[in-house]
Write a structure and sequence with these properties.
282 residues; Pantoate--beta-alanine Ligase, Chain: A,domain 2; 6-stranded parallel beta sheet; 20% strand; globular; binds pantoate
């Protein structure tokens, strides 16, 4: 596995691969790798000649300095995990100036309103930061296909929109949420929870499964009441939001229309750690 530690080495590497006509699959990450990331590489392996990942904790997508500081970082552990997996051909680990040559600040994007829903309300500026870093990584890595987990479903929608609007000609692939045995969606943030808290947090997934059972059986407002009741009974867990949204526009719905697709979205703060999850309803 090649470890590319700056923009110049990446560019030379990409140029060689392009000359050989290699099809590139790319999965950007912020490190603290887990099996959810490996599932992205597995998907990429089946469809490309070459799989590239990146590790870069992007400062502009954190609207809270404390969250950025606390974000888990262990590049040596990440590299040995990647090496062992045998799934990745090259990993790009840029310095801040490789991504932001002048100042680490976001560009401003219009994602046709997707940015104003859910996470956009709770984390102002977050998606401008994500758009900025992903666009820059795309321009440097020049992938044919790029892979993102559906856990961050709104991020996936926004990256699809940005790619289309900027005509980047990259195929964006959404990969199913990778869950622990108890159903908890894998996230780098889970490392900050104790084992017993991680076990209790399975209630987030269990709630989404219940919501799916209630879908089109009871009203949206009744579902919301029931979800609130579940979390009112949980000590140390705070339901930040729960909503059911149109899967395309991500706009919250109060009613289930016949021909639309819906997805449930939830954010729960467990011992100060913000956990997000979602589920397609059918
Ligand atoms: O999902 C992530 O890990 C990050 O938001 C991403 C896409 C790597 C951009 O920094």
């Amino acid at each position: 596995m090649e470890v590319l530690r700056n923009k110049k080495t990446l560019q030379d590497f990409i140029e060689r691969q392009k000359e050989m006509g290699k099809k590139i699959g790319f999965a950007p990450t912020m490190g603290a790798l887990h099996n959810g990331h490996l599932s992205l590489y597995e998907a990429a392996r089946t469809e490309n000649d070459l799989v590239i990942s990146s590790i870069f904790v992007n400062p502009t997508q954190f609207n809270n300095a404390e969250d950025l500081k606390k974000y888990p970082r262990d590049v040596d552990r990440d590299l040995s995990m990647l090496e062992k997996s045998g799934l990745v051909d090259a990993v790009y680990i840029p310095e801040v100036q490789d991504i932001y040559p002048e100042k680490a600040e976001s560009l401003h994007y219009d994602f046709d309103g997707l940015e104003n829903e859910m996470e956009g309300k709770s984390r102002p500026g977050h998606f401008d930061g994500v758009g900025t870093v992903v666009e820059e990584l795309f321009r440097q890595v020049k992938p044919d296909n790029a892979y993102f987990g559906e856990k961050d479903f709104q991020q996936l929608a926004i990256i699809r929109k940005m790619t289309e609007k900027k005509q980047l000609h990259i195929n964006i692939v959404g990969v199913d949420i990778y869950r622990a045995e108890n159903g908890l969606a894998l996230s780098s943030r889970n490392q900050r929870l104790t084992e017993s808290r991680r076990d209790e947090a399975k209630i987030i997934y269990e709630t989404l499964v219940k919501v799916n059972d209630w879908f089109r059986v009871v009203s949206v407002s009744e579902i919301k009441n029931r979800v609130k009741d579940i979390f009112d009974d949980q000590k140390g867990m705070n339901l930040e939001y729960f909503m059911i949204a149109d899967e395309k526009t991500l706009k919250e719905t109060d009613f289930f229309y016949k021909d639309k697709l819906y997805r449930a979205f939830i954010v729960v703060v467990v011992d100060g750690v913000r956990l997000i999850d979602n589920m397609h309803l059918d």
